[in-house]
Amino acid sequence: MKKTKNKTNALHILKKFKFLFHSVRQYKKYAILSIVFVAIETLLECIIPFIMQLLVDELGMISANPVVDKTGLLNTVLMYAGILLLLAAFSLLFGILAGRMSAYASSGFARNLREDEFKKITTFSFQNIDKFHTSSLITRQTTDVTNIQFAFMLCVRIAVRAPLMFIFAFTMACIVAAPMTWIFAITVPLITILMVIIIPIATRLFVKLFRKYDDLNEQVEEDVRGMRVVKTYAREDFQKEKFRKESEEMGRGFQKVERLLSATNPGIQFVMYISMCLILFVGSMVCIKLATANPDGTITFGALTIGSITALITYSAQVLSSLMMVAMVLFMIVMAVPAINRVYEVLVEEPSIKNNDHPIYEVKDGDIVFENVSFKYKEDAQKFALQNINLHIKNGETIGIIGGTGSSKSTLVNLLSRFYDATEGSVKIGGVDVKDYDIKTLRNNVAMVLQKNVLFSGTIKDNLKWGNKDATDEEIIKAAKVAQADPFIQTFLKGYDSWIEQGGVNVSGGQRQRLCIARALLKNPKVLILDDSTSAVDTKTDAYIRKGLKELQGVTKIIIAQRISSVQDADRILVMDNGELSGVGTHEELLKNNAIYQEVYEIQNRIGGAH
């Protein structure tokens, strides 16, 4: 039963590696050339001991046979020496070429694999990303691909070299000293048993270690993103201690693996030296037994000569070292198995949101309809995040959304861009179900400014052109003016060509929000969603932004806010409570008939705030 399970697991790994092998693509020729060069190099290495045997035997004849024509034999020896030098030079050349080809193939494979993985991740919905977690996706793109790259390089070179070396060396050993090859029947099983014991243990340890990689990456990412908070609360020592514990635990795991693997090479070396001792001892005894004295005073050793024993020692080392290489490849593959599984999972993951067979490429207008919409983040979740939402928003309307934390305000608008799909019911824009649109077309027509405003390294103009890469300078400035970003941009020395650091850390939160609003406006969308996107600006700037947005004709605007002042001029206001619509109406209507809205309004307008 256990054998069947192990065989099934091995087949699954081979299937996954074969799937990943498609990423080799244009570098396949380098992999094939590397295999060819390795085969030639290995063959030459196995011929060299045979020539050495002939050379040693010739030298033995010179020393043991005084009547031999020493000049002729010396010429023969020089010939063998020349052949050896030539074989060594060609072996070196093909070894270098094999190394270069395998380096090209493995680095190209890793490049393509990272690119394929990244492309696949960009197709993921929020639901897919939630499944893997950001830190895990980073590990799968970096550490995991590197481990697969090393495993591939070893497979191209050593995994080809080792079996060829075993076959060639064993064959040559049988040719030069067949009576002595029984020694391999003792030494080879010893190494095999050693590998069978160690490899499964190492596999389990590596699987655990790669899980620790994710945890460590997640903590580093969390600390770097929240560094301002860490420093604000002076929690550096706490976070350092937390990181130290995680790092030490992972370090102990690697030490355990290293101790295990470090025992392998000495074990194989021990078996190799036993093999050499047996060959020398038994071979010497056989040579002495077979030795015969000739009438002319010379000694003949029969079929087994000093040269053949010398060659056999080399072939024995090659046979056992080939097994050592197999062990090294297996250990590297063991390290790569978790990585192969994790990268494979990403590449075969089907995006939960994708185009249907005949998508629609035009959004007529910003008319929005929610019909009996309910939604939960996971299929097995017991509670719906949204429940029984029925709503019609006319094209060009301005809609405000108010509600407490966790009332699912953002979840509601995420369904419009198909970041998630409704679990029940349907969401329509322009009279068409959002599932029937081409995703890119839909998202180009539904512009969203998220709660977390993200800018990328580059100039202000570069960042704004994310909304429309073909936007003219006039269009960029117009959008910036509506978003109230132009006044502070003009204060920068280079204006719109000023540099933005990664994440927009060199501008304030309010400035980031205004730049993100301008970026969304450049898309000329049918629907514009501001998800609490003016929370970091002052009320005066907020009022100017709302005034600018009001002038946009034919654009449906949805504004999620915590401040009633940000939405009170909207055509209608939605009040969300616990994933349901608690009320819909104008500011005045809700003040009369909605208790939640009344309470929020009173708290925000009470003199002294909470007093």
Characterise this structure.
The protein has 611 residues and is α/β, with parallel strands linked by helices. The chain is 62% helix and 10% strand. It contains 21 helices and 14 strands. The protein has helices at 2-20, 28-64, 70-122, 126-132, 134-141, 143-156, 158-177, 184-225, 227-232, 236-262, 264-290, 306-348, 409-414, 439-445, 460-464, 473-482, 486-489, 509-521, 539-550, 587-593, 595-605, and strands at 292-293, 299-300, 368-375, 386-393, 398-403, 424-429, 432-433, 446-449, 458-459, 499-500, 527-531, 556-560, 572-577, 580-585. The strands form four sheets. It has a six-stranded mixed β-sheet with strand order 8-11-12-5-13-14. Strands 4-3-6-7 form a four-stranded antiparallel β-sheet, with no helix packed on it. Strand 6 and strand 7 form a beta hairpin. Helix 2 (28-64) packs antiparallel against helix 12 (306-348) and helix 3 (70-122) packs antiparallel against helix 6. The radius of gyration is 37 Å and the shape is elongated. The model is unreliable at 292-302 and 607-611 (pLDDT under 50).
State the end-to-end distance.
72 Å
Mean pLDDT: 82
Oligomer: single chain
Which shape, going by the Cα principal axes?
A: elongated
Q: In order across it, which strands form the biggest sheet?
A: 8-11-12-5-13-14
Q: Which class best fits the helix and strand makeup?
A: alpha/beta
DSSP, total strands: 14
Give the helix proportion (percent range).
55-70%
Please give the count of helices: 21
Strand proportion: 5-15%
What is the C-alpha radius of gyration, as a whole number of Å? 37 Å
Query: How would a crystallographer describe the biggest sheet?
Result: 6 strands, mixed
Low-confidence stretches: 292-302, 607-611
